[in-house]
Amino acid sequence: MFYLYFPMLTLCCFAAYALSFLGSEVAERTASLVARWQGVGFTHVVLNTDNMSILGLSIDYGPFGFFDAFDPSYTRNTTDLPGRRYCFAYQPYNLQLSATSHSFL
Question: Which of 25, 50, 68, 74 would suit a FRET pair with 15, their CA atoms being 20 to 30 Å apart?
Fold first, then answer.
């Protein structure tokens, strides 16, 4: 099943290269998803590894929000203060933290 989602890995000759490529592919797919979200003003409440898959999909939206007017400090997470960890402006940073946790690939 794995090769259905990452067919390009069938061309890899070395396991180390395949794992490195997979890590890059996961980061790229997830970054693309978050960029599309931000383009429409969507804020994921808790963007972290247990809410994302290696396919670059979100598997748990939990509470989320769209803002009506641009506000980088917009925070839909009621346990976080506006402008803090889960605000709109920090979504890419949270993605970076998630990518770091996948660095073992």
Answer: 50
